[in-house]
Amino acid sequence: MKKCNVDDTVNFIKSVYKTDNIYLHEPRFVGNEKKYLLETIDSTFVSSVGPFVDQFEGEISKLTDTKRAVGVANGTCALQISLELAGVKSEDEVLTQALTFVATANSISYLKATPIFIDVDLDTMGLSPKALKEFLEQNVELKNDGSYNKKTGKKISACIPMHTFGFMCRIDEIVEICKQWKISVLEDAAEALGSKYKGKSSGSFGLLGAFSLNGNKIITSGGGGAITTNNIAIGDEAKHLTTTAKVPHKWEYSHDKVGYNFRLPNLNAALACAQLEQLDNMKNSKKTIFNQYKDFFNDTEINIVDIPKNTDWNYWLTSILLKNKKERDIFLEETNKQGIMTRPIWTLMYRLPMYKKVQRDSQKNAEYLEERIVNLPSSAIL
Q1: Measured between alpha carbons, how far is 316 from 328 in angstroms, rounded to an integer?
Q2: How much of the chain is in helix, strand and coil states, percent to nearest 5?
Q3: Distance, C-alpha 111 to centroid of its chain
Q4: Model pTM score
Q5: Cα–Cα nearest to 216, from 293, 304, 316, 285
Q6: Contact, 235 vs 70, CB < 8 A?
Q7: Under a CB-based contact definition with an 8 Å cutoff, are residues 276 and 211 in contact?
Q8: Which domains can be identified in the chain, with CATH numbers?
Q9: Helix 75-85 and helix 232-242, axial crossing angle in degrees, nearest 10
Q10: Helices marked H in the chain — which ranges?
Q11: What is the pLDDT, as a whole number, of residue 5?
């Protein structure tokens, strides 16, 4: 096994991207982006209605093989609305993972519910069905109307597995376990647009799926997101709630419940539609880059995080696994000093002040990954 120092890695990354300052994940605008944006500006329909919104929702539905998709302002509000549509109430509890971006936990808190943190699998870095099953069997009582936490007496009304870096959780197992415990599954697929598990698309396994189109995702609309579902009635309600719950009428301003202004503007949808046309090219380029990394780190002391079994990955972010936190920190310090934007995995949610008292299991795998994972520049080259 050969030694691989930081300088070698920096030089390799610069040789791939042929520049000295390299970001973690940049958007690429090489198709119809400007054309569609100008069409939208010329039409004057730049806000919440317009043909590109309808087109975007249709294309996301087709891509994810779901019956309904709703464009929204960002991935966080997609999660928030999904939780509300799943019937999560104030004081309820929601199972999720501590190894995630803060938006996952925050979306639960917006509804005045409380997260419970379950450990992840080492290979997928997403919610572990084994850990989930163990937690439920040890801590939860199944009643006629759902599952209740023995410790708090509160109802556990939903579970949010997160598809980390575009990898897919063992989502079919998670759905089956939650079905037995009468718990709705909502997929946090913010990073997993274009990924599949056992031939089935992210965002199509649970009751609802939530996607992000932030500027650092595999495709972007600048700001934006989407909700997916195979329940048309729930999808229609998602559209209603995210457009201020306005009752259709030629001129009256009538609203039948407390809704949200979470609409995806037509301007952003235009950008998203152009980006969707490039999704396959993005994936192919990023696959090539991942394989270059894999060859470079082969037979070295640095382990690349390989594609989990049964996953058709979107190649969003390539990760490596260092020996320990000390080596991770040295790698991060030296690469960033030399113009290479590398990043650690997220700080575990229960280390943040607002979630430090939240119930959790052992988190053995999550803590192992937190100390060792580094994300490498993974932008497509088009």
Answers
A1: 21
A2: 40, 20, 40
A3: 19
A4: 0.97
A5: 316
A6: yes
A7: no
A8: 6-28+279-376 (3.90.1150.10), 33-276 (3.40.640.10)
A9: 120
A10: 6-17, 33-43, 51-64, 75-85, 102-110, 129-139, 171-180, 232-242, 266-276, 279-297, 325-337, 364-370
A11: 87
Q: Look-up: residue for tokens 């909700």?
A: 227
Q: Is the distance from CB of 85 to CB of 111 less than 8 angstroms?
A: no
Angle between helices 266-276 and 51-64 (to 10 degrees): 40
Question: Which conformational region is residue 18 in: left (phi greater than 0), alpha (psi within -120 to 50 degrees), or beta?
Answer: left
Burial class, 205, CB count within 10 angstroms (exposed 0-12 / middle 13-18 / buried 19+): buried
Q: Which of 98, 92, 83 is nearest to 128 (CA)?
A: 98
User: Is residue 2 scored above 90 in pLDDT?
Assistant: no
pLDDT bin (cut points 50, 70, 90) of residue 3 is confident
Mean pLDDT of 234-252: 96
Q: For the segment 8-48, what is each residue's pLDDT rounded down to a tens digit? A: 999 999 999 999 999 999 999 999 999 999 999 999 999 98
Assign 178 to helix, strand or coil: helix
Residue 1, pLDDT score: 72
- The 3-state DSSP class for residue 313 equals coil
The pair of structure tokens assigned to 308 is 């989990």
In whole angstroms, give the CA distance from residue 70 to residue 56.
Answer: 9
Centre a 10 Å sphere on the Cβ of residue 2 and count the other Cβ atoms it contains. Answer: 8
**Dihedral of CA 311/314/364/371: which sign?**
positive
Alpha-carbon torsion angle 242, 196, 380, 213, nearest 10:
10
Residues 6+ away with beta carbon under 8 Å from 176: none
